[in-house]
Batch of 2 targets.
Target 1
Amino acid sequence: MIEQRRRFQGGRHPVWMEEAFVCMIDQRALPHEEILLRLGSYPETTAAIRDMAVRGAGSIGVAAGFAMAQAALNAPASGFLEEMERAAAHIRLARPTAKNLFYAVDRVLAAVKETSSPEQARQRARMEAQAVAEDDARMTQEIAKAGLPLIPAGEAVLTHCNAGWLAYPGWGTALAPIYLAHEQGIRVFVYATETRPRSQGAKLTTWELAQAGIPHALLADTAVGFTMRKGEIGMVIVGADRIAANGDTANKIGTYSLSILAESHGIPFYVAAPSPTFDAECPSGDQIPIEERDEREVLEATGRSAAGVVESVRVATPGIRARNPAFDVTPAKWITGFITECGIVEPQPQAIAQFLDKRRHALLR
Ligand code: MRU
């Protein structure tokens, strides 16, 4: 199992660096095939982010940090910083919504600028990119601990998309408290929503949960209201791609509808995310850039046929068009709380500012 190859301190890592190569589990092939990609240059790593071989806010960030390290390795000594700025601009265009991508690129670029020679900068870029991955993994362990007491005994937890270790290195975000509960022998049952159009729930979350031996069932996106009304869901935990200063949260398309359903059934709705996903400079959800992806993702479905062939088939009426917004924004008012590396943070501006201040000071020490 390739996922076990990267099981080191701080949980599991879906993307890592070996010498000049960025290696990653190709998440497009899961759960049918386990394919490992070895990418030799920052444009290749950027393309892997854009094409979603690696996806999920934290993993996108880590891949972007490693792409910057690759850029540093290959940049010529003359015009080194200009080349790093060019690479940063290129990588930033890979995907627009997840804050972690911009966080990682800026962090590696800032580290490089502190050095006094290209040789030093190459080493520093590699170290900083690795630090992004390891800091992320540590934060997910803290999220696991903070979220554990919230897991309702004997009731099912619903999650959307994939916010496990494939999406955020370490323990994942939304799945982190669930992994910890399971490890501690607490009975926990998970409903994973299918998450059309790319089906990250059906393909990735169920794969992770099955590997961990956590009891779960797949739920069609359209079955959530029915299941909540029957009293079969005790809590919702989702991850996040970007959280604005006022607490509005961008996450996988469909999260907004889930939050309203949870609110109207009196079910707690938590967002699990560490500080690199928060965007203090973004005042509200209205300013979060929302990615629109290719309409084919909606018009088609991809899976494995009875003959064992992975293929895409057209589902929709021939000749029609589709819209494909990949994320939506859940207003802070529908969020019960943020599960962070510093505990539970209330979904309101002062609490978020205090949390981010605390994190900034911790990093400066
Ligand atoms: O389009 P994706 O698969 O990258 O979207 C991922 C999500 O929306 C996750 O729920 C989100 O990143 C939170 S997990 C870190």
Note: The chain has a mean pLDDT of 96.
Target 2
Amino acid sequence: MQRDVIIACDFSSKEACLNFLDRFSGSRKPFVKIGMELFYAEGPEIVRQIKARGHKIFLDLKLHDIPNTVRKAMSVLSALDVDMVNVHAAGTVAMMKAALEGLTRADGTRPLLIAVTQLTSTSEEVMQKELLIGAGINETIVQYARNAKEAGLDGVVCSPLEAAMVKEGCGAGFLTVTPGIRFADAAADDQVRVTTPAKAREIGSDFIVVGRPITAAEDPVAAYNRCLEEFCK
Ligand code: C5P
């Protein structure tokens, strides 16, 4: 799999998102991540419009429901022609298998399917005391990644610092999609465990998800090119 930089388009309206993407009209079209905020505000039409402009799309909706519902929902998303979608691994192997079935088109093609293991906002303490999951957080992440692999998924979303452990547990070909990226000379914002694009590459991430370091940059195209330079070269 070719390494790539995915821009997290965390905008609240279509106008803001398309104005941002207009800046890339003369250059390489970035792979973009559309999350719940934009999708729920604008609906599937925003996906079609961005797709029509030539971008690959990671639709980050983190599905988690009974297998039958997820299968049907995934078949709708697959028809939108997105390139990557995700589910919560906590939904079980049966749910992830159903997601994969729903995503697979009649011609056998399908978007990449990635699992969320434990959200980085969940601490080990909350996981153990509130959710009553007795194992340690790293053990849980690797087990959820293994479950995703068993279900036939392509990889997981994780912190770059967890990527090595996931690769060790699931093999080098199992994809890691990693947010929490910051340039060495920039602020971390609200991210706690951050890594530079170059370091993420060294650790073995396959895709980095970069939001504010590009979207809030004075020159987003230059910031994107800097990510490509550090991560993909
Ligand atoms: O602006 P920033 O680079 O922090 O954006 C990172 C993106 O990755 C956001 O869309 C955020 O929701 C997402 N993300 C994350 N950490 C996770 C999973 C997703 O930062 N564990």
Note: The pocket of cytidine-5'-monophosphate is lined by residues 8, 10, 35, 119-120, 157, 179-181, 189, 191, 209-213 (CB under 6 Å).
